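hi! just following up on the protien thing from before. the input was this:
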Amino acid sequence: MLNPQNIRGPGEAMFAVLMFLFALLAASYPIVRIIGWWIEGAIEPVLAIASIGLYFGLIVVVVTMPEPVALAALLAILASAVVTPILGRSRDQAELKRIEEERLQQYAAALERNPLDPVARIALAEALYRKGDVDQAIEHLQWTLQQFPRLAFRIRPELDEWVHRREQMQAGATVCTLCNIENPPGLRWCRECGAELAERARERVPDTSRLHHPGKLVVRIWILGATVLLLFIGAYYWLPSAAAGPVTFVFVMAGVWCFYRWSVGDAQR
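and the predicted 3d structure came back as:
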């Protein structure tokens, strides 16, 4: 669009500059997130470099190609900018779950060393409650209350609240163990804090083909999708129209197959 051959007046020149700046702005957030995942070690350097290179490649398309092609490239950048924070949030939630699991293991190890440690048992009960294992959490608090009656002022209010929540859950309500808000039946995510509801999480069957890190998913989708888009643009601009369609179809099928093999291979590791 910034190519002088494609600009026919000051209005189009201004529009082209705005498109270029908007593409840079839209690409900046995903690029920053990808660099962050790279620094954290969540994705391989090759994936990060390839992803960032594809962003700049599409920005070049926005700058140099006619308006319809430039808009398609811009939409691809915008789509990735929308998906990246969503998967980034999923990654953050997965990290919180990992931290909670580590805490559970630490509290369990502390109880193995000293089964009469009330602090470790209360901490374990609270971690189990946040995880959604309300029954086990209540059992630990009840045992602690029996062994250490002097801690009733600390344990009793929490225990009564948990028992009440369990009764609500048994009656059909879904209570978030993070914010204690009651949710209508059938919801997977808490309507107040957005956390995954424990009952729904336990019912959900794990997907063994899911990638280990959401960042890998968004990066791999982006690499294959952007590559197919660039090849599609090249096919329609540099190949005869009769050959462009079949070649594009081959590109799309190859991209789907590569992503499937990529995902399955990662899950098997």
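The first helix runs from residue 10 to 40.
Residues 199-212 have pLDDT under 50 and may be disordered.
cheers
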